Amino acid sequence: MTSKDIINKTKKYVANTYSRFNIAIENGKGSLCYDFEGNEYIDFTSGIGVNSLGFCEQSWVDAVSFQSSILNHTSNLYYSAPGAELAEKLCTKTGYDKVFFANSGAEANECAIKLARKRSFLKYGENRYKIITLQNSFHGRTVTTLSATGQDSFHKYFSPFTEGFEYVPANDIRALEKAIDKSVCAFMCELIQGEGGVIPLDLDYVKKAEQLCRKNDLTFIVDEVQTGIGRTGALLASEQFGVFPDITTIAKGLGGGLPIGACLMKDTCSNVLEPKDHATTFGMNPVVCAGANVVMDAMTDEFLNEVKEKSKLICKTLESLDNIKSVDGLGLMLGLSLKNKKAIDVACECNDNGLLILTAKEKLRLLPPLNISFDKLKKGLDILCEIISE
């Protein structure tokens, strides 16, 4: 089949819910992938932060292949080794007490919302249910996680939305303090607003927000669906902000290419949920967990320090260009503001020249595989710099 065949078939039979680039990918290895005509692309997208170890990393392939040959699924009514091992790695490496496994970031956030509300209900009764989130945030596409998302553009067509959410401006601690009353049970935020334009929160704001949560006995929830699992140069971005939330949600990069989400819980709330309070058919799937175990094993100090070094290289290279306004973000989650070009136009031109890159609102968004070689990183940057400087 040709790329044109794949594109036409997709357009004919698949619901039109994505604005796709005009590329059909046949195969990939590491930070390189190829279309059906054999054209090569350097990947600066990681499947929107999912392929943390790139395409088809061999130890990941071996683990997933072996697990699929001995046990593909059991349901959560039984125990299996890959999920137990993954839970142990996540909890011991992060300091959390327990974890709930789901299939996506939105599902992980649904769990966090239910957990925060039940914890508050048990302590304070039914009228303390409101969750404060930030304007310009993004927490998922289910009706409830869209309700938690602080962007008006997402609050169309699908009403009535789930009630019980209030939005305050990011980095405005007074606005947050003012919004807290006896109806509020939790505060939920991303440390770097990904879909909102790769915008990091201020360090001081995050620390003061945590203090407000402690003072008012609010559940402090951090959505690390995109920032977690090494993306910012630490296992969790919260480490770099100096906070320890009651709940952290992760997804994307954890599975290394297979669907998984997780809700990490401190001991303050790890025993709140009971059987039948929350569940998912495919969560803790053995094959997915086998892949996630390989990803977790890769998250050594040396590996994470190298992510930071690659980030420094990108920032140093791009900040020297006249057409770059700013480079925002942490680690290998970076957003570029341009002076004289539109991000989408640059992204399309990069595609034509063998570099896959993303956009986030008005910015270019860079999410390379965490293990991309310095050689491939420099080669991709050369393509990007040339296009931006034209």
Write the SSE topology.
Elements: H1 3-13, E1 25-29, E2 32-35, E3 40-43, H2 46-49, H3 58-70, H4 81-94, E4 98-102, H5 105-124, E5 130-134, H6 143-148, E6 165-168, H7 173-179, E7 184-189, E8 192-193, E9 199-200, H8 203-216, E10 219-223, H9 238-241, E11 247-250, E12 261-265, H10 286-298, H11 301-319, E13 324-330, E14 333-338, H12 343-352, E15 355-356, E16 358-360, E17 363-366, H13 374-389
Parallel strand pairs: 3-15, 5-6, 5-7, 7-10, 10-11
Antiparallel strand pairs: 1-2, 2-3, 4-12, 8-9, 11-12, 13-14, 14-17, 16-17
Helix pairs in contact: 3-10, 4-10, 11-13
Summarize the structure.
The chain is α/β, with parallel strands linked by helices.
How does this structure look, described?
This protein is of the alpha/beta class. It contains 13 helices and 17 strands. It has helices spanning 3-13, 46-49, 58-70, 81-94, 105-124, 143-148, 173-179, 203-216, 238-241, 286-298, 301-319, 343-352, 374-389, and strands spanning 25-29, 32-35, 40-43, 98-102, 130-134, 165-168, 184-189, 192-193, 199-200, 219-223, 247-250, 261-265, 324-330, 333-338, 355-356, 358-360, 363-366. It has a seven-stranded mixed β-sheet with strand order 4-12-11-10-7-5-6, with helices on both faces. Strands 1-2-3-15 form a four-stranded mixed β-sheet. A four-stranded antiparallel β-sheet has the order 13-14-17-16. Helix 4 (81-94) packs parallel to helix 10 and helix 11 (301-319) runs parallel beside helix 13. The radius of gyration is 21 Å and the shape is globular. The mean pLDDT is 97.
